[in-house]
Amino acid sequence: MQNQEIVKIIENLKGRRNYEEKRASKLGFASLYDYFEDKISKKQKAIEDEQKESEVAKTDKEPKTSKKSCSCC
After folding, report:
1. What does the alpha-carbon distance between residue 8 and residue 65 come to, in Å, rounded to a whole number?
2. In 3-65, which ranges are continuous DSSP H helix?
3. Average pLDDT along the chain, 73 residues, taken 10 residues at a time
4. For helices 32-61 and 4-11, what crossing angle results, to 10°?
5. Model pTM above 0.70
6. Number of Cβ within a 10 Å radius of residue 23
7. Contact, 36 vs 3, CB < 8 A?
8. CA–CA separation, 34 vs 59, rounded Å?
């Protein structure tokens, strides 16, 4: 089953198709479809990683609730 998004990308390459085919073969992909499939999965993974990092950053910025002792003790 083919992903329609990838098929549309390949159809719309026009003048860049030769370039992308050479790049895909250079990187060891069997087809242009495999190349774009990998490219899209890497983008999605990068977005997920970025979201996780931002969530961690948000939790680090939140004040920690702890008992505060007075300075005299």
Report:
1. 51
2. 4-11, 17-26, 32-61
3. 87 94 95 94 94 82 62 66
4. 120
5. no
6. 14
7. no
8. 38
